[in-house]
Amino acid sequence: xQKSDPELLKQIHEAYTYCKEVFEPRxxxxxxxxxxxxxxxxxxxxxxxxxxxxxxxxxxxxx
Length: 63
Hints:
By secondary structure, the protein is mostly helical. The chain has three helices and no strands.
């Protein structure tokens, strides 16, 4: 088994935390429109925002 790189784990955690803040469901509902022109960017936006929306829904259901 390969030992984890602590710097890589730190970067992954920071990226997750940043995405969690940026794609927070309530924040996305407030934004009126997004002007994304790149197809890959649009797909990324959809996948990541759906992930955090699902987590929020799970949290609310489990309350």
